[in-house]
Amino acid sequence: MASNWVGELIYEGKAKRVYRVNDELLIMEFKDEVTAFDGARKERAPGKGRLAAAQTVFLMRLLSKYGIRNHLVDWDGDRKILVRGLRMIPIEVIVRNYAYGSFLKRMPLVKPMTRFSKPLVEFHLKSDELHDPLITTDDIIEAGLTRQEQLNEIMGIALRINEILSNYMVSRGLTLVDFKLEFGFDKSGNLVLADEMSGDTMRILINGRHLDKELFRRGASA
Ligand code: 5GP
């Protein structure tokens, strides 16, 4: 079922388009395309937009049940979700349970898939041009992106989300390796989880096999 929700196109990225409905609401439309390596590899993938929307809706609703504030308002049942407009913080918050991906590139002393003694939380600046570089908490404060207390709150929420998602995945025989989150502020200054949560933003294994975009990154076809 395609929706007749409409708005003014304000952003087009690799995986989605964003439309402004009014002062409060946006539409996020997930594309039927899969990309990797900052868009250097791209393929059409019919059904992928709906899947990303469905996964985001499922996971955000799950998190809501645990009191995690997030931007989801509604879903059209297809490729679009209605979300609250926020003042976005231009950082990616990554939580890692096992050594994988860019962690291994910067820390080759750790063996792939080593389970960390505690989940790691790290921050990357959102910048395709710079390939989302790892940044420190001091960098974030000095750049005026958040205050220290807000950053502490983000870390707390990210770890709580990890707990909720890891428990959910374990109960279904899945392993949550790592994932990426983005946050924004609402008009009252509350931190709100935003963006998407899908196979594009997390690594999930079943019996050692990937159930996420890693397959595509390694060269499989969409
Ligand atoms: P890594 O830093 O190891 O490449 O990624 C860690 C986790 O965050 C993975 O689950 C990956 O899917 C997600 N992630 C990191 N950067 C991005 C990004 O720019 N876009 C998306 N969609 N996910 C990302």
Q: What would the average pLDDT be, to the nearest integer?
A: 94
User: Mind telling me which CATH architecture of the largest domain this is?
Assistant: 2-Layer Sandwich
* Poorly predicted parts: none
| CATH level-1 class of the largest domain | Alpha Beta
Helical segment tally?
Answer: 5
> Which hetero compounds are present in the coordinates?
guanosine-5'-monophosphate
Q: What report would you give on this structure?
A:
The chain has 222 residues and is of the alpha+beta class. It has 2 domains: 8-84, Phosphorylase Kinase, domain 1, CATH 3.30.200.20; 87-217, ATP-grasp fold, B domain (D-amino Acid Aminotransferase, Chain A, domain 1, 2-Layer Sandwich), CATH 3.30.470. The protein is built from 5 helices and 15 strands. It has helices spanning 48-65, 101-106, 137-142, 148-171, 214-217, and strands at residues 8-12, 16-20, 25-30, 33-36, 41-44, 72-75, 80-84, 87-88, 91-98, 115-125, 134-135, 174-185, 191-194, 202-206, 209-210. The strands form 3 sheets. Strands 8, 9, 10, 11, 12, 13, 14 and 15 form an 8-stranded antiparallel sheet that branches. The longest helix has 24 residues, at 148-171.
